[in-house]
Design a protein that fits this description.
Layout: E1 3-7, H1 12-23, E2 27-32, E3 41-43, H2 51-58, E4 63-66, H3 79-102, E5 109-115, E6 126-127, H4 137-147, H5 150-154, E7 158-164, E8 166-168, H6 173-183, E9 196-197, E10 199-201, H7 202-213, E11 225-229, E12 235-236, H8 237-248, H9 258-265, H10 268-273, E13 277-278, H11 281-285, H12 295-302
Helix pairs in contact: 1-7, 2-3, 3-4, 8-12
Length: about 300
């Protein structure tokens, strides 16, 4: 079985991935920033100042999965927090990529988290991995984030950039905040509700990561570069609202107007109100099968 290093293992996606990999019998090394407190932990340095430490942590691994990064919706987007968001992605990725490149025996695969923020606001236009980068703060961060992974690719390591959409889960992420509101009958569309949301169930997201790691000979082993991790059927926020109300058997009569969102969320409101109609073209072409292809099936899966 494979030995796999994972950063961000305490997060929603990272934790689910670690459980799935261990369930498959793989050995997982959880990379942590502080002193290791468990046998399965190893320390790494997200700043990149102690490359030898990070290199030692991943030495001997067959694959490295890098998912660490500050939460986009965890705080108001002050100038300081925007720098935290950028640095946690760009510096951390650069540190891992440089450590991988420095090894004599490099891992076969570097699976690096990214985001569909790369595309900016696409409006009604559907985009896939062939689309150019968009504009705006998250697009700029995503471009720098992915560029920071280049040393690993230049060293000959298959490098996959997993551009993640909105993950549908009950216990975390954006959807983790939606469920309590809708259960309380306080849900509603955001803004005019016409903006597209590109969502994916947590189960499909983890399955896609495992597919891309190709530890069992999956076709995903032939992929490198950007891969969109979104469901195949993006829908508008208005439709998401209808689905949540229908599945939870609650009214959804409290729309949140755009000016109020901007007042409460600041600049982050532009991301909430922005439209991203993103398709997982490369996953589908490689033969990946979604268990929850629609938003409704993803929401129902999150409740089981």
């Amino acid at each position: 079985m494979a030995r796999i290093a994972v950063t961000g293992s305490s997060g929603l996606i990272g934790g689910a991935l670690v459980r799935a990999l261990r369930g498959d019998g793989h050995r997982v090394v959880r990379l942590v920033r502080g002193a290791p407190s468990r046998p399965d932990e190893a320390r790494w340095d997200p700043s990149g100042r102690q490359q030898e430490m990070t290199a030692a942590a991943i030495d001997g691994c067959d694959a490295v999965v890098h998912l660490a990064g500050a939460g986009v919706a965890d705080h108001r987007w002050t100038t300081h927090y925007k720098q935290v968001l950028r640095d946690s992605r760009v510096l951390g990725t650069a540190a891992v990529a440089a450590a991988i490149a420095s090894l004599d025996r490099r891992p076969a695969t570097f699976l690096c988290g990214s985001a569909i923020g790369w595309y900016g606001d696409t409006g009604d236009r559907a985009v896939d991995e062939s689309a150019p980068a968009g504009s705006g703060f998250l697009a700029d961060v995503s471009v720098a984030w992915e560029a920071a992974a280049r040393p690993a690719a230049d060293a000959g390591v298959r490098t996959v950039l997993a551009r993640t959409g909105l993950v549908v889960a009950r216990s975390g992420g954006a959807w983790g905040r939606l469920f309590p509101l809708f259960r309380a009958g306080l849900g509603g569309r955001l803004g005019d509700g016409r903006q597209y949301w590109s969502a994916i169930s947590l189960g499909d997201h983890v399955a896609a990561l495992r597919f891309l790691l190709a530890l069992d000979g999956d076709a995903g082993g032939g992929l490198s570069g950007p891969v969109n991790l979104t469901g195949p059927e993006p829908v508008t926020n208005r439709e998401v609202t209808r689905v949540m109300a229908r599945v939870l058997h609650r009214p959804a009569v409290f729309p949140v107007p755009a000016p109020l969102l901007r007042l409460v969320l600041g600049q982050f409101a532009e991301d909430v109100l922005g439209s991203q109609r993103v398709l997982p073209a490369r996953l589908l072409e490689a033969g990946f099968t979604f268990r929850h292809p629609t938003v409704e099936s993803a929401v129902r899966a999150a409740l089981t």
